[in-house]
């Protein structure tokens, strides 16, 4: 009969059990850096003239990133937070319905049409077709190869340090 005894089996088991936690920690650290870089790309490239020109800066200021970790992995989100009603229609495009525009702070609306200033108590807006001006998805598409490579490198480093 052959008897085999493995020295250090308990240490090996402990090291192998620690790997998922080390991988998640390494991925979370790298994901945090990448999420910030992606958010910065959206803010300072796409929403600063790359896809859209900033008027008020509200959409640009609403861009946030978040990284969450759990026992099953790491989750990253980058998007518009807050009450920027036009964020989705700018990203995906779409149509607005015909609607009435009424003054909210004054008795009349004031606007320039045909080079002449005009005043009206109400205006019937015919609706609009807004073209897609992707600022989130296009940034992710551009950065995807670098993101994949950086996450792979983080896992490789965690493996080497395990």
Feature tags:
2 domains; rod-shaped; 162 residues; alpha+beta; 4 helices
Helix/strand layout:
Blueprint: H1 9-44, H2 58-62, E1 63-70, E2 73-80, H3 87-92, E3 94-96, E4 99-101, E5 109-113, E6 116-120, E7 123-125, E8 128-130, H4 136-161
Antiparallel strand pairs: 1-2, 3-8, 4-7, 5-6
Helix pairs in contact: 1-4
Strand order of the largest sheet: 1-2
The biggest sheet, with number of strands, parallel, antiparallel or mixed sense and barrel status, is:
2 strands, antiparallel
Q: H/E order of the elements?
A: HHEEHEEEEEEH
Mean pLDDT across residues = 89
Would you count the extended β strands for me? 8
Distance between the termini: 36 Å
Could you describe the 3D structure shown?
The chain is 45% helix and 23% strand. The chain has 162 residues and is of the alpha+beta class. The protein folds into two domains: 10-93 and 131-161, no CATH class; 94-128, no CATH class. A two-stranded antiparallel ribbon has the order 1-2. The protein has a two-stranded antiparallel ribbon with strand order 3-8. A hairpin with a 2-residue loop joins β5 (109-113) and β6 (116-120). α1 runs antiparallel to α4 (136-161). The chain starts with 8 loop residues before the first helix and ends with a helix. The mean pLDDT is 89.
What's the gist of this structure?
With 162 residues, the protein is of the alpha+beta class.
């Amino acid at each position: 009969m052959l008897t085999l005894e493995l020295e250090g089996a308990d240490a090996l088991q402990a090291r192998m059990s620690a790997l998922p936690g080390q991988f998640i920690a390494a991925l979370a650290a790298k994901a945090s850096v990448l999420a910030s870089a992606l958010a910065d790309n959206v803010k300072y490239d796409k929403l600063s003239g790359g896809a859209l020109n900033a008027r008020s800066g509200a959409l640009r200021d609403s861009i946030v990133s978040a990284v969450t970790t759990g026992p099953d992995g790491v989750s990253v989100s980058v998007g518009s937070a807050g009450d920027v009603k036009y964020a989705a229609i700018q990203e995906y495009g779409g149509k607005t319905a015909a609607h009435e525009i009424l003054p909210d702070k004054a008795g009349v609306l004031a606007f320039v049409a045909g080079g002449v200033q005009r005043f009206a108590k109400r205006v019937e807006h015919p609706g609009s077709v807004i073209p897609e001006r992707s600022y989130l998805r296009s940034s992710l598409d551009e950065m995807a190869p670098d993101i994949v490579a950086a996450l792979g490198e983080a896992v490789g480093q965690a493996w080497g340090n395990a």
